[in-house]
Design a protein that fits this description.
three-stranded antiparallel beta sheet, 2 domains, six-stranded mixed beta sheet, alpha+beta, 4 helices
Length: 144
């Protein structure tokens, strides 16, 4: 049997909180996706404790009374709210964070993003492996 389903594109945001790095199972650790009217990062209001987000779309429709949806499509870069630092800047501004420098060495990383979060600082090592990443200035972000 062939079914005809009209699908529409629905945009979502998924907020990232501290537990993303405590539990690398991103599906469980990231905030539940929320529908958004726009994919414009500047139009988002970040909830308390959130230090990053991703935008994505799903194709959604109804088939014989059942909701159906696709996997994620058009997944954006990872947006992090923080400060991009080089290895030398980490050494200069955070001299007691040898652990971060060691992680950078292991990953052969040249930079890191320092994000402030309610439960402590988050350090996102940039491994220069083509990961799409956009760093946003904390002073330019609207918070709930």
């Amino acid at each position: 049997m062939i079914y005809q389903v009209t699908m529409r594109t629905v945009s979502y945001v998924e907020f990232i909180f501290n537990d993303y790095y405590d539990n690398m199972d991103a599906e469980k650790a990231e905030g539940n996706p929320r529908k958004v009217n726009t994919r414009d990062p500047d139009a988002l209001v970040l909830p308390r404790g959130c230090f990053g987000f991703r935008l994505f779309d799903r194709y959604e429709g109804v088939c014989e009374g059942e909701k159906v949806s696709s996997e994620r499509v058009n997944v954006s870069d990872l947006y992090l709210v923080g400060t991009l630092l080089s290895r030398s800047e980490v050494a200069e501004y955070f001299p007691r964070r040898d652990d971060i420098l060691k992680k950078m060495d292991i990953a052969e990383a040249t930079s890191v993003v320092h994000c402030s979060a309610p439960n402590g600082d988050i350090w996102h090592i940039i491994e220069d492996k083509g990961e799409g990443l956009t760093v946003l200035n904390p002073s330019q972000i609207a918070r709930a």
